[in-house]
């Protein structure tokens, strides 16, 4: 199914943006591909924080295993305390470091994206829905929504898509329906 371009009235050169990005027969040039690509989903945490959380979980399991395993022999009391609780202490330290890394990432991202849109996952979802509904005319190099009477040049696509998605971003606006 092809949609008619509102600029050149052609239907044989129109394709959904998401399909144009995947088309290996007629690949888009790198600048156009970059302009039409969907911005990444707002991230929740960093790889460093995830790694610290996983290590904390592993040390916690190791600590619980040694705690329930039993006696460390006839060693000194300090050694037995370290043997039984050392891995749990390491897990607590790694967990704290993971939370510090996570909060640092979030505050830095909040400062970096204070003027950018989308900032939240709901906003990103609305932008993604707009992106999925957008078509590209390969002939005149414009992007358009099938229901809209106008089109925008590919160079203006990122700003246009954000503006269309932001139309529902007013106070008390309900989120757009998802697929």
Can you characterise this structure?
- The chain has 179 residues and is an alpha+beta fold.
- 53% of the residues lie in helices and 7% in strands.
- It has six helices and four strands; from the N terminus they run βαααααβββα.
- It has helices spanning 17-22, 30-36, 47-69, 77-112, 121-133, 157-166, and strands at 14-16, 135-137, 142-144, 151-153.
- A four-stranded antiparallel sheet has the order 1-2-3-4.
- The longest helix has 36 residues, at 77-112.
- The radius of gyration is 26 Å and the shape is rod-shaped.
- It starts with 13 loop residues before the first strand and ends in a 13-residue tail after the last helix.
- Secondary-structure element pattern, one letter each: EHHHHHEEEH
Strand percentage: 5-15%
In the sheet with the most strands, the strands line up as 1-2-3-4
- Number of discrete helical segments: 6
Task: Lay out the secondary structure.
Elements: E1 14-16, H1 17-22, H2 30-36, H3 47-69, H4 77-112, H5 121-133, E2 135-137, E3 142-144, E4 151-153, H6 157-166
Antiparallel strand pairs: 1-2, 2-3, 3-4
Brief digest:
The chain contains six helices and four strands; from the N terminus they run βαααααβββα. It is of the alpha+beta class and 179 residues long.
Keywords:
179 residues, 53% helix, alpha+beta
């Amino acid at each position: 199914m092809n949609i008619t371009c509102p600029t050149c009235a052609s239907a044989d050169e129109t394709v959904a943006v998401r399909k144009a990005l995947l088309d290996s027969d007629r690949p888009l040039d790198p600048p156009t591909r970059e302009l039409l690509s969907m911005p990444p989903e707002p991230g929740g945490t960093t790889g460093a924080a995830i790694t610290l959380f996983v290590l904390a979980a592993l040390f916690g399991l190791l600590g619980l295993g040694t705690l329930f395993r039993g006696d460390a022999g006839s060693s000194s009391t300090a050694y037995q305390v370290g043997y039984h609780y050392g891995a749990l202490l390491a897990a607590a330290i790694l967990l704290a470091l993971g939370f510090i890394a996570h909060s640092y990432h979030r505050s830095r991202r909040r400062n970096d994206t204070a003027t950018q849109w989308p900032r939240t996952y709901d906003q990103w979802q609305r932008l993604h829905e707009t992106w999925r509904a957008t078509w590209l005319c390969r002939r005149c190099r414009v992007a358009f929504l099938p229901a809209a009477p106008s089109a925008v040049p590919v160079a203006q696509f990122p700003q246009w898509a954000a503006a269309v998605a932001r139309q529902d971003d007013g106070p008390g606006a309900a989120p757009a329906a998802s697929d």
